[in-house]
Write a structure and sequence with these properties.
single chain, about 300 residues, alpha/beta, 2-enoyl-CoA Hydratase, Chain A, domain 1, six-stranded mixed β-sheet, two-stranded parallel ribbon, 12 helices, 8 strands, about 45% helix, globular, binds ligand L4P3G6V5, EC 5.3.3.8
């Protein structure tokens, strides 16, 4: 199976990508039996860190991140997400995916800081390729993607949500969403900045990106970062209602329109992926950047409650 970008997967995944996918939806832990599309979706999806609950009747799969404690985007989680999304996308039974968290109170804490600290350039290269790959796969997905944001959603978590077509956020003042990279001493790459601008406009992005703003639900709604804020116990049902609204539109017309709206942004990255990786690696390897990330991680570890 060739992925668009050449993300390097663990050896067994390269030989047999579906070996990573285990049936978790039926409570079994043995490897999935098959790899083809169609048929009994319930037997085919799911992996250690990505639970997939397929509903073939509605054509919607609920995909849950399960990388406790905070769904940080480790290389493994990124890889499993890309594979799971590709698998659902290749199965013509499905027209939509709801992305949500299986971990309490956190949608995703963003990039796994332990992947960004104290590693070597080869690791950073592999890691950044996987970040690019997940963004491309979600941003350009022909499926309808709805984010059911049932927890805190900073940085990389927000990036996943932004790549979706629609965002529903739980109304809990602790569930902040936004791109806070500057507060870690790092910057947002151009393609993520572009996604932000596409969503909330230039001036709001300029302000929020420089300040590293994390918005509570009411402000996130006001600025246009999310489409709905609802009581926590209604996040999934509202995401399903939103999904029904989007699926009421004929696929081909919706997909062509999505491509028309997103292609220029994605193409900008596709044209310079290698340069973007090199830029990231040389940036992240700087002593000063490593130092600020270490300090940030240490503060996180010390901060409890
Ligand atoms: C050309 C230039 C390119 C530059 C590239 C930049 C790339 C930009 C794109 C994205 C950047 C990122 O995503 S960086 C990650 C930023 N994320 C954050 O700032 C969030 C940090 N986390 C939190 O705020 C909180 O953990 C939480 C609100 C998400 C949850 O709070 P809660 O109280 O429930 O949990 P704890 O804080 O106690 O955390 C539990 C446990 O998890 C560890 N943790 C948290 N976040 C991360 C993370 N992102 N990576 C790794 N580990 C993380 C935390 O340290 C605790 O660990 P211990 O139990 O060991 O103490």
């Amino acid at each position: 199976m060739a992925l668009a970008s050449g993300v390097r997967f663990p050896a067994r995944a390269l030989l047999r990508p579906w070996s990573l996918l285990r049936d978790t939806t039926l409570g079994r832990s043995e490897p999935a039996a098959g790899g083809g599309g169609g048929g009994d979706g319930a037997r085919l999806f799911g992996s250690q860190r990505v639970l997939v609950e397929p509903d073939a009747a509605s054509g919607v799969a609920v995909m849950k991140f399960r990388n406790p404690p905070v769904n940080s985007l480790s290389l493994e989680l990124l890889t499993e997400l890309v594979i799971s999304l590709e698998k659902v996308e290749n199965d013509k039974t499905f027209r939509g995916v709801i992305l949500t968290s299986a971990c309490p109170r956190v949608f995703s804490a963003g990039l796994d800081l332990t992947e960004l600290c104290g590693r070597n350039p080869a690791h950073y290269t592999e890691y950044w390729k996987a970040v690019q790959e997940l963004w491309l796969r979600t941003y350009l997905s022909s499926l309808v993607l709805v984010a059911a944001i049932n927890g805190a959603c900073p940085a990389g978590g927000c990036i996943i949500a932004l790549a979706c077509d629609c965002r529903v956020l739980a109304d809990n003042p602790k569930y902040h969403i936004g791109l806070n990279e500057t507060l870690l001493g790092i910057t947002t790459p151009f393609w993520l900045k572009d996604t932000y601008v596409n969503t909330i406009g230039h001036r709001a992005s300029e302000q929020a990106l420089q300040l590293g703003s994390l918005f509570p639900p009411s402000e996130a709604l006001q600025v246009g970062l999310v489409d709905q804020v609802v009581p926590e116990d209604q996040v999934l049902s509202t995401a399903l209602s939103e999904m029904a609204r989007w699926l009421a539109v004929p696929d081909h017309a919706r997909q062509l329109t999505k491509t028309m709206m997103r292609k220029a942004t994605a193409d900008r990255l596709l044209r310079q992926r290698d340069a973007d990786i090199q830029n990231f690696v040389s940036f992240i390897c700087r002593d000063s950047i490593q130092k600020s990330l270490q300090v940030y991680l240490e503060k996180l570890r010390q901060r409890k409650g």
